[in-house]
């Protein structure tokens, strides 16, 4: 089923990159990198991939932030699959490091925990979004450069 979804997203091009990145940044355990690499291998230009991937992935974290900002632990656990103990760890990280934690929002599991915690603690929306965007863009640039698609 996952392979079919990846193929579908690759098949629809840049909108597929956006959707894959949004899912990976929010509720779904999904790898947007696979879609990005697949599209780049098919010849899609790297800059639009970086733009649409970064926008989608950042909005996925903003979605997590929003759910966290509602302050309803049961929604966080049900819809975002962040366990209460992980939320508490995220809150402790955000309490210690503030909006800088958003730079780590690209990491699997930890990223969701951090972005939800930032919303839960009502860290500045602008600072959070800027940190999300920066971390996600750098990660995608490193990915594309590692395959030689950026020069």
Question: What do these coordinates show?
Answer:
The longest helix has 24 residues, at 46-69. Helix 1 crosses helix 3 and helix 2 packs antiparallel against helix 3 (32-41). The model has no long low-confidence stretch (mean pLDDT 91). This protein has helices at residues 2-11, 14-25, 32-41, 46-69, 73-79, 84-97, 110-120, 125-146. 73% of the residues lie in helices and 0% in strands. The chain has 151 residues and is mostly helical. It contains 8 helices and no strands. The relative contact order is 0.15.
Could you give the distance between the termini? 35 Å
Please state the structural category: mainly alpha
Rg, alpha carbons: 15 Å
As a percent range, the share of helical residues equals: over 70%
Arithmetic mean pLDDT: 91
Strand content: under 5%
Count of runs of 4 or more consecutive helical residues: 8
């Amino acid at each position: 089923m996952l392979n079919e979804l990846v193929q579908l997203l690759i098949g629809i091009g840049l909108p597929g990159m956006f959707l894959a990145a949004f899912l990976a940044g929010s509720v779904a355990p999904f790898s947007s990198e696979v879609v990005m690499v697949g599209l780049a291998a098919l010849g899609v230009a790297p800059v639009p991939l970086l733009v649409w991937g970064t926008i989608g992935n950042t909005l996925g974290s903003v979605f997590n932030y929003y759910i966290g900002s509602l302050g309803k632990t049961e929604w966080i656990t049900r819809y975002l699959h962040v366990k209460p103990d992980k939320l508490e760890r995220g809150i402790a990280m955000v309490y210690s490091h503030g909006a800088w934690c958003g730079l780590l929002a690209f990491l699997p599991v930890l990223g969701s925990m951090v972005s939800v915690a930032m919303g839960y603690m009502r860290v500045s929306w602008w600072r959070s979004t800027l940190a999300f965007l920066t971390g996600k863009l750098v990660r995608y640039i490193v990915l594309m450069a590692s395959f030689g698609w950026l020069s």
